[in-house]
Amino acid sequence: MSAEHEYGEPVEYQIMWKSGAVETIKAHQVSWPNNLRFSMFGASQGGAARTIQFHGEFNGRWQLVLSANEDDMISVRNLSSLGEPS
């Protein structure tokens, strides 16, 4: 990782897709759609899909890990915050 930007270890996320598939990815940042834009004007302009993006720094480069339509997902779960089972 870059000496200028230390993001620490990436967070592990589990994505449950409406197709039934379950996927695990690692990322440093998750961006959800800007809900303010939707509430101010009543709906998304032109019926644009709401996209969730996952980014991370790997091998010294900040990069897009996954970009997906929110409607294709059932859930996104942060596995790194679950801790050890008791």
What features would you highlight for this structure?
86 residues, mainly beta, 1 helix, 6 strands
Plain-language structure description:
- With 86 residues, this protein is mainly beta.
- Helices cover 8% and strands 45% of the residues.
- The strands form 2 sheets. A 3-stranded antiparallel sheet has the order 2-1-6, with no helix packed on it.
- The longest helix is centred in the middle third of the chain and has 7 residues, at 35-41.
- It starts with 10 loop residues before the first strand and ends in an 8-residue tail after the last strand.
- The mean pLDDT is 82.
Low-confidence stretches: none
Described by the principal axes of the CA atoms, the overall outline is globular
Average pLDDT rating? 82
Helical region count? Answer: 1
What fraction, in percent, of the residue positions are helical? Answer: under 10%
Q: Characterize the main sheet.
A: 3 strands, antiparallel
Global Rg: 15 Å
Structural class: mainly beta
**Cα distance, first to last residue?**
33 Å
Number of strands: 6
What percentage of the residues does DSSP assign to strands (E)?
over 45%
Give, in spatial order, the strands making up the sheet with the most strands: 2-1-6
Q: State the order of secondary-structure elements, H for helix, E for strand.
A: EEEHEEE
